[in-house]
Amino acid sequence: MMTLADPSKSRAVLVGTASYDHLQDLPAVANNLARLKELFTDPEVWGLNPEHCVVLLDPTRDGVLEAIGSAADSATDTLVIYFAGHGIPDSRSQELHLALPTTTPDRLFRAVSYGDVRRAVLDSRSANKVVLLDCCYSGRAMAAGMGTAEAGMEVGIDGAYLMTASAATRTSSAPIGATYTAFTGEVIAALADGLPTDADVLYMEDIYFHVHKELAAKGLPKPQQMLSNGGRSIAVARNRFAQPAKFDGVDWAQLSPTTRRNFVATLIATLNADSQVTQPADDDSVIVTCGLPDARVAYHVFPYVESVTSAQKRTIRRSLADPAAAGAARHVVVTPHEPSPAERSWLESAAPQNEGEAIEWLGTVWLDDHLTDQQDLCDYFLGTGPRRHATPRSRSIGDLLAPMTTINDLQRELTRLRTETRKLSPLWRIDHATQGPTTQFTIRERFAGAAVLDPVTITPVFSFPLDDPDGQDAHREFLRAIDFGSDATIDGRFIDRFEFQASEQTLRLLGADKPTKPAQIQIKAIPNNEGLPLPCVLEAVDAQGVILARLDASLTERTGGRRGTMLTGSDPSGMLSFRNTLEHLRGDKELVGRMNFTVHGVVDRYPYACRPAADFLLAMTPGTKVLLRIGEAVLGPGDVKDSLPQDMAQPARLVVALHEVQRQFGRQLPIPDGLTGKDLREIEMVAELANAGEARWPYRGINTGIWAHRLQEFLDDERIGSHGALILESDRMPFTWGGQTIDIGPFRLYGSHMTLTNRPELETAVGTGQDPEARWRCMDGHHLTIFRKAPAERGKTTDDAV
């Protein structure tokens, strides 16, 4: 970013036409020129020498070009050219002309061509060049350019900036009776009053954004800008809005002890990275530790504003010996009063020190020196209000978006917004994430232990109607969360209100004075995972204690609540997770627990990896018991009272069947997506066939294709009656599930009581040349059986086969 343009090396030429012989007069232009010169020559704004700020009201063409040429030759820092009046485009070349008193549309030689102005400006040796055009059709000046590479115009000109009052095809606005024209009036307002930015100077682009926003809000023509390298950061005025108040120290005695302590501790944490704040028990001090382990510093912060008493000296000694400060290479006592030589001497002699440890006492001199550059921190704790209006309070998102046209513009504004957001609190960091129409705000400690200085308690008050089933379900979920530490989501209709306890500043930050009712509240458990993960074993045993299935697993999370503890774990494949809820021991009673299982998606997992979990699930039939072994400790048993739900049983059956199929056929593929109940029945049939050599066909019937030239022969065969036995044989039978194909090889399909259900349809198809299908169906109480042919039988056929 650039600093304010040097007024001694800069020049400005302000040109305007207020009175016309043949065009409408613009009396406000005279006021434009007078006020702009007043501001440019004001030492508190820019400070141009009045002789270097030339004003030309109702000038001649030669007078304008001579003044611009002279200023262009003299300026070495910044050259500013301003014109207000009528703008007339050439009907043939479309070039913009700046109308003077005698100009008419058919006498443009009496006007100043913008091309002549542009050449004079670009020929100047000044480092920065600014042109402001307040006239109709001024956007046509963009076609001539000011050196922007982005627009494909002339390049290689650093520090050039052009702002126009309107687009190429739009008129500008000069409201009747107004003191200034609309465009220049907003430029004057920015120069006179400043803008709510972080900078101490006004950059041309900031002025443009202000003018754009204000004119757009009033429905007036929007300005345009064009710039080259560095053009956006040319500054020709100090930002009056952002003038900092001179820091004259803090009246510490007027603050409460807690505010004094928190103010000093937050300053130290702000100045030092990786700070950690702790509070000794039964003490009004805090300890701020920071730095690398071998150069750790412990700041001992006390709220004392007067000479310390004997009791306060004992408090200081306790703090220096506190475990939180153990191992520090340097101890620093900090108080909001300047210690006397006697107090410093006492500290050096009385404080316990280990070899190599240093100790010192810092007071108000050190605090004032470091608070000089911490205006936002002072504003926060002293309640003096922000030094400058923060962006979130002074500019809406709509205002930010209005002048933006590129991703770079958006990035710039988001950076500004983040900068202003940091000023909301030195203790709490506000992060946000947007998904669709929803924005989630997360408030975290800005440094470790910030909550020690500013504890926050938010208590939701719920109402769960007894006559509302959803309300009772939510109540049970809520109780599980607070009793055992599980997560829960409570719908907003069951939330009455929130009760807040926090500092005044944080209550304001949270909007506690006008809380909004949320759509829902999510309760998140805070786990204590010390010592985890921990291996364990799940066992399913029958009524006689025989182990039906064992599953190696791992405990990965531990949470707790009012009534007990919840242990969460999973098997190695991730297919099965479990939660073991344990109530606290009371007296000599046994540990009371409950086990809940969840089956996760098996798609893309390998069957062999999931097989142990699937076997364990299928072993959990009514009457069995489940044990959780952690080393030598045994939790349980838990009784299985109900059959496994379908959403758990079907994935387990699928895993077992696919594993058997892949094992028999030498495959190892992940479980595909999109498998159906029909696929499961077929896979289980193929698994049984592969293991036992025969299996029950999973359907009530089967269709067989018949060639058209053999159809009549088929119908004439006396063996084809209304019902009877059916034998089908083939060397191939491929099955495809989720894109994976397995051919079970030579097979024989047998049904003892079958019927042909579509003989009339087949008779009709004779002579049509079509290959129809014969549909066979098992008679009631019977089924088809499929046999896998042994190697010795392969290639043989059966005489009775149809």
Please characterize this protein's 3D structure.
The chain is α+β, with helices and mostly antiparallel strands and about 800 residues long. The protein has 22 helices and 37 strands. A hairpin with a 6-residue loop joins β4 and β5 (about 95-100). The longest helix has 20 residues, at about 645-665.
Which helices and strands appear, and what pairs or packs with what?
Elements: E1 11-16, H1 28-40, E2 53-57, H2 61-74, E3 78-84, E4 87-89, E5 96-98, E6 112-113, H3 114-122, E7 128-134, H4 141-144, E8 160-164, H5 182-193, E9 201-203, H6 204-217, E10 224-227, E11 235-238, H7 257-271, E12 276-278, E13 286-290, E14 297-301, H8 310-320, E15 330-334, H9 341-350, E16 358-362, H10 364-371, H11 375-382, H12 391-394, H13 397-401, H14 407-421, E17 428-435, E18 438-445, H15 450-453, E19 457-462, H16 469-484, E20 488-491, E21 495-501, H17 504-510, E22 520-523, E23 534-541, E24 547-560, E25 564-570, E26 576-583, E27 593-599, H18 607-619, E28 625-630, E29 633-639, H19 646-665, H20 677-692, E30 694-696, E31 701-705, H21 711-716, E32 723-730, E33 734-737, E34 740-743, E35 747-756, H22 759-764, E36 773-778, E37 784-788
Helix pairs in contact: 1-5, 2-3, 5-6, 18-19, 19-20
